[in-house]
Specification:
alpha/beta; Rossmann fold; 15% strand
Amino acid sequence: MADWTDGDLPDLTGQRYAITGATHGIGEETARALAAHGAELVLFARNADRAGELLAEFGGRGAVVRCDLADQASIRTAAESVTGDLDVLIHNAGAVSSSRQETVQGLELTLGTNCHGPALLNRLLLPQVRRRIVIVGSEAHRNARLDRDDPHWRNRRYQPFAAYAASKLALMLWARELSSRLAAEQSPVDVQLAHPGFAVTNLQNVSRFEPLNALIRFASRPFSQDQVAGSWPTLYAATEVLPPTSYVGPDGRRAMRGHPTPQIPDARATDPEAARWVWDLVERETFIE
């Protein structure tokens, strides 16, 4: 559909959508739009109080689940607390760190939060998902490189943007392998991918020097879009009829801004051998037997 916006969402009454990272930015706008069209929400958030305030603000029905994607114990506890089916599970949460840090389990924070965390939550909730899983990737994958010898940046100089790009590439590859496995099992659940383009969010805050972060946000305005428009690709991927593993993003120049449309990801995000490698890495490091 040309010039699709959140106003084109169907009536979602009676449907249950779960989303991570809904307390700010694109996730907040995604949840807001879903609630406005009648969806019941399950909001996974580190800040459960903030999520509860937003749920009340949206006027939507649903639940808040405290969940820290950088802590596998928190993820397991969160998943155990979710009862009932989910029509759609949206993996929206993302993180970027200005310096090398680690998750509770000792994984590099960006990879552990952006790839391993969603993968573990997905594994635990999959029996309850009825229709679709949406993965929020990033155009940063086009310039990403996965270092198979050192995926957690233990033996090389840490680079925040490179770590973020690699984590999103890993997540997108993991999603491809998930889709292949679901298809082999003849599951009714499909997997879709989306990216927000260049939306101004707190992910631009990668410097420890706030004036520099503010300058980056200001300089980005001419070719970026706001968080509402940034949520459109996710909403489109969550609700429209699409072939499995479609990749939805803005239709403007260099996919930075515009209306959502299916796009072609870089070949590095569709490599089946690399997808299996990421899958195996995640399985080992999330202690999944």
